[in-house]
């Protein structure tokens, strides 16, 4: 494998990983603030997140998949030297999705009362839906501009605008909620609406930022267009059809994922309300949709980079019929995914209650929910990586079909398990685990039939599992030891987690889970391998 190829793949992975980690950390920051804020807590999260999930569903319909579709069509035009055609695609797409986004905004604003009362059965969510509605419009048009920049291979613009959005969302959430709390004497319903109003402002500012970048480049682009003699003859209807033909299949997985989130928002409160009371039911949903969801999705920030980078890497290798590169990329990415997913799964299961107490001291309930939900992590990250590989291989519909089957299993599990006394809200967590097991099983089997996988069970499964178990035992023993010395639970938890990270890293090296070829794939892999040779770990 050439050094250039290796560096290009890993640099892309690291860049994506860094941006996603920043976004996830900022998301955790404002979630910690809201959950610990007096007068908000789990009940406030129920109102806040129920509205947000409906918004996410409409957002999927109006814009998800659009950046990739615009990027594909624009890059094709530019490859042919048709810059006017690329510019025409942007303009038509902008008008089209401005209209679609406006309709989505209107539907959410006018239907807020009905959705909150009838669908969610959380009437307090009406204001959160209304304040979120304009965000659909801004995200829809932002997605077109991001797609245009991606098509011109200026992906840093997209990354920067997404980071800007999350920075403003975090800052404005805290500022607006504090103002609302002071003005309303801690009204939870209006504080939740204020938190979602921050999302709307953040999407507006993010759009303003990326559109300003577009305008800054416009003068240079205009000069290029003047010199270009080609004129696109394609009709507006034809362009719109092409955009929708590409964006709809890409959006399908995201749409099903959004539906998956809404299963809990529709079933949990509805089923639990007559059994444990409305207030308690809302609090249980608030724990599940906010604290648990945010913590279990954290590992995805590290892993999504591999899923994203695999698409172009495998697509390029497939065009050249380079099966050796496909196998190397796949084996390495899946191995790293396992090495990320297993310790996160075991660690979150082991320290579920302690993590909640550490991060959310004012609203720390939900340990059992988090412990069960931790088992979604390994199957979600593996499916995420495999989905990237399948998309690169041209199997675009498979991830959506697999997740659709998983969502159906989750719906059935929710309906059957949540009403059972002693299980209640844990049934939703069990349903999520079953959902991701089903989804992973399907995509893995399709991948096995599509590509001859060069997997060694000892290296890929047995050794990582053994290392993770050893890490868990030593880490938990350290935790108990600190407690026995009379130290606080908070300090013991931090020590236990630090010991887990250090021990895990040492054991991965000592058990030689990474081969020489795997180490070469890492940034500065040659230097790392030479150090390990000097330590006489590798020959």
Helix percentage range: over 70%
Q: What's the quaternary structure here?
A: single chain
Q: In one word, what is the shape?
A: globular
Largest sheet, in brief, is: none
- Count of distinct structural domains: 3
Secondary-structure-based class equals: mainly alpha
Q: What's the Cα radius of gyration? A: 24 Å
Extract low-pLDDT stretches: 1-8
Give the overall pLDDT as a whole number.
Answer: 84
Beta-strand content estimate: under 5%
Task: Give the helices and strands as they follow along the chain.
Answer: HHHHHHHHHHHHHHHHHHH
Q: How many beta-strand elements?
A: 0
Number of helices: 19
Terminal CA distance reads 21 Å
Descriptive account of the structure:
The model is unreliable at 1-8 (pLDDT under 50). This protein is an all-alpha fold. The chain has 3 domains: 1-19 and 266-455, no CATH class; 37-234, no CATH class; 456-539, no CATH class. Helix 2 (41-62) packs across helix 4 (83-119). Helices cover 85% and strands 0% of the residues.
């Amino acid at each position: 494998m050439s050094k250039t190829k290796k560096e290009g793949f890993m640099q892309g992975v690291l860049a994506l990983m860094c941006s996603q980690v920043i976004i996830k950390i900022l998301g955790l920051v404002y979630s910690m603030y809201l959950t610990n804020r007096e007068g908000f807590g789990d009940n406030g999260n129920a109102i806040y997140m129920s509205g947000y999930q409906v918004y996410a569903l409409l957002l999927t319909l109006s814009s998800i998949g659009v950046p990739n579709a615009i990027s594909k069509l624009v890059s094709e035009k530019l490859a042919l030297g048709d810059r006017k055609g690329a510019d025409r695609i942007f303009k038509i797409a902008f008008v089209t999705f401005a209209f679609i986004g406006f309709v989505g905004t209107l539907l959410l604003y006018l239907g807020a009362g009905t959705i909150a009362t009838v669908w969610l059965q959380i009437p307090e969510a009406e204001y959160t839906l209304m304040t979120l509605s304009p965000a659909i419009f801004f995200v829809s048009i932002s997605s077109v501009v991001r797609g245009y920049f991606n098509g011109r291979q200026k992906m840093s613009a997209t990354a920067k605008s997404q980071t800007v959005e999350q920075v403003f969302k975090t800052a404005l959430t805290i500022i607006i909620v504090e103002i609302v709390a002071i003005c309303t004497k801690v009204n939870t319903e209006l504080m939740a609406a204020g938190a979602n109003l921050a999302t709307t402002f953040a999407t507006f500012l993010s759009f303003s930022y990326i559109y300003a970048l577009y305008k800054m480049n416009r003068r240079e682009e205009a000069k290029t267009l003047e010199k270009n003699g080609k004129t696109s003859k394609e009709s507006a209807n034809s362009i719109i059809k092409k955009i929708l033909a590409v964006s709809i299949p890409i959006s399908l997985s995201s749409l099903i994922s959004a539906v998956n989130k809404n299963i809990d928002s529709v079933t949990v409160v509805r089923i639990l309300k007559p059994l444990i009371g409305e207030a308690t039911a809302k609090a249980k949903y608030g724990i599940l949709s906010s604290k648990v969801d945010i913590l279990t999705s954290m590992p995805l920030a590290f892993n999504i980079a591999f899923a994203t980078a695999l698409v172009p890497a495998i697509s390029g290798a497939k065009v050249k019929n380079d099966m050796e590169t496909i196998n190397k990329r796949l084996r390495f990415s899946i191995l790293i995914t396992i090495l990320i997913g297993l310790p996160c799964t075991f660690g979150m299961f082991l320290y579920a209650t302690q993590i909640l107490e550490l991060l959310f001291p004012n609203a720390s309930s939900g340990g059992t929910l988090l412990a069960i939900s931790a088992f979604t992590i390994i199957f979600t990250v593996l499916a995420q990586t495999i989905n990237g590989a399948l998309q690169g291989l041209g199997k675009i519909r498979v991830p959506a079909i697999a997740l659709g089957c998983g969502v159906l299993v989750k719906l059935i599990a929710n309906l059957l398990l949540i009403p059972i006394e002693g299980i209640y809200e844990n049934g939703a967590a069990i349903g999520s685990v079953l959902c991701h097991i089903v989804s992973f099983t399907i995509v893995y089997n399709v991948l096995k039939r599509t590509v001859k996988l060069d997997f060694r069970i000892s290296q890929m499964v047995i050794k990582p599992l053994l290392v993770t178990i050893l890490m868990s035992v030593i880490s938990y023993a350290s935790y108990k030891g600190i407690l026995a010395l009379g130290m606080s639970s908070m300090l013991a938890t931090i020590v236990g987690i630090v010991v887990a990270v250090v021990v895990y890293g040492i054991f991965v090296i000592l058990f030689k889970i990474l081969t020489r070829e795997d180490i070469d794939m890492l940034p500065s892999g040659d230097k790392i391998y030479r150090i390990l040779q000097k330590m006489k770990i590798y020959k």
